[in-house]
Amino acid sequence: MNSAWLLLLAGLVAAAMWLKRGLARTRKSPEAVIVTKFSSMLSARTSSFGPESALPYSKSLIREAIRKLYLGKPDESTKNALEVAYIELETFAPDADFAVVQQGEELIRQAADASRQGKSPEEVAEIVAGLPSRYSEIQSRVVDAQQVRLRELRAGQ
Fold first, then answer.
1. Which residue ranges make up each domain of the chain?
2. Which H or E run includes 51?
3. How far is 26 from 95, CA to CA, in rounded Å?
4. What is the pLDDT of residue 1?
5. Can you tell me the distance from the alpha carbon of 144 to that of 10, in angstroms, rounded to the nearest whole number?
6. What is the average per-residue pLDDT within 84-94?
């Protein structure tokens, strides 16, 4: 995993842990329970994506719980953490897509390792050439969906 992904993952873990602690101090509404379980899952995640089948609840139920908490006018820190959770929900992909992403991430790790070991640019490029075409399609689709979801949440929809 490259340093940009590690930095992003570290920020995500911090936001998820903060959200989990913050919600634990509030009264336990059904929405808070749902979001707390989801944030626990986010903070334990070691990859940029997750399989949708591993979610503790359906994406639609988690999305609605986050939205309700967000619309409840939380403090700024909680609001920011809820925004992160809302868009990170999009990184939980159907299992078939998750398998493609796992394969792509493994090839990227191999390419990074080869580069660190002093392999030639051609050898590194050969590894990267093995990336499934669906890998970048899935990545792009998720980024687009995250942007739409953030606008949706901020608009109160």
1. 3-154
2. strand 50-51
3. 34
4. 45
5. 22
6. 95
Query: 97-116: per-residue pLDDT in tens?
Result: 999 999 999 999 999 999 99
Phi, psi of 80, rounded to the nearest 5 degrees: -65, -45
Determine the residue type at 56.
P
Q: How confident is the model at residue 27 (pLDDT cuts 50, 70, 90)?
A: low
Q: In 65-79, which positions are buried (b, 16+ CB within 10 angstroms) versus exposed (e)?
A: bbbbbbeeebeeebe
pLDDT for 25 equals: 53
How many residues would you count in the chain? Answer: 157
Q: Give the Cα separation of 99 and 32 in Å (integer).
A: 30
| pTM for the whole structure | 0.76
> pLDDT-based confidence at 157, cuts 50/70/90?
low
- CA-nearest of 73, 106, 99, 87 to 11 is 87
Cα–Cα distances (Å) from 29 to 24, 26, 32, 35, 66, in that order, read 10, 8, 5, 10, 12
Could you give the angle at which helices 76-88 and 59-71 cross, rounded to 10 degrees? 160
| Residue 144 to residue 112: CA distance in whole angstroms | 26
Cβ(32)–Cβ(69) below 8 Å: yes
